[in-house]
Amino acid sequence: MSRLHDISQPLRADMPVWPGDTPFAHEPTWVLDGQCPVNVSRLTLSTHTGTHADAPSHYAADGQAIDEVELTPYLGPCVVLDMRHAGPRVEPEHLLPVLPSHVERVLLRTWGHFPHERWRSDFTTIAPESIDLLAERGARLIGVDTPSLDPEVDSRLLAHHRVRHHGMAILEGLVLDAVSPGHYELVALPLKLAGADASPVRALLRELDG
């Protein structure tokens, strides 16, 4: 049986979120006891909580909402690349030595250890030119273990806009600590949230036979 890797963040009350965004909360509304036969809970969260898929409408006024995007980029063969050495930004010269000649989905590991316990503003970002390179090699999706492709304080969102230019999809907030570089099958479908700018996902990698 093929081995599965769960590369999703656990959603919990004390998890760090983007500064100013909605904290995650999970609270019971019905409690299973002598008077009630079921447990039911209420969730409060941002569309960008934890491991999530950005919709084009997140950063473009005329972009598609998450329920309108094509789903095939989120399901299929992918390659995981180790970019822990890249520094503040992943440039094409970091990718070229390890990037296959043809790719469909690319996941980039940049953290030595994913910062589950606190917010980190010094996360590695992706150069727009690197997005162009991935698109030239056939990429339909880029995934990162950081909260954004672009810097926290840069409102231009240059990498995001290059992604949209090439018709690619985005996954952010992956947890790749326990995954070796190599080829896998990705499963990370967004929820069908009507009109939403993003969606949390349960992201999995399946090891390929052979």
Automatic annotation (TrEMBL):
Biological pathway: Amino-acid degradation; L-tryptophan degradation via kynurenine pathway; L-kynurenine from L-tryptophan: step 2/2
Residues where Zn(2+) 1 binds: H48, H52, D54, E172
Active-site feature positions: H58 (proton donor/acceptor)
Keyword Zinc: yes
Domain of life of the organism encoding this protein: Bacteria
Record's catalysed reaction(s): N-formyl-L-kynurenine + H2O = L-kynurenine + formate + H(+)
Keyword line: Hydrolase, Metal-binding, Tryptophan catabolism, Zinc
Membership in a protein family: Belongs to the Cyclase 1 superfamily. KynB family.
Subunit architecture: Homodimer.
Function, in words: Catalyzes the hydrolysis of N-formyl-L-kynurenine to L-kynurenine, the second step in the kynurenine pathway of tryptophan degradation.
Name of the protein in its database record: Kynurenine formamidase
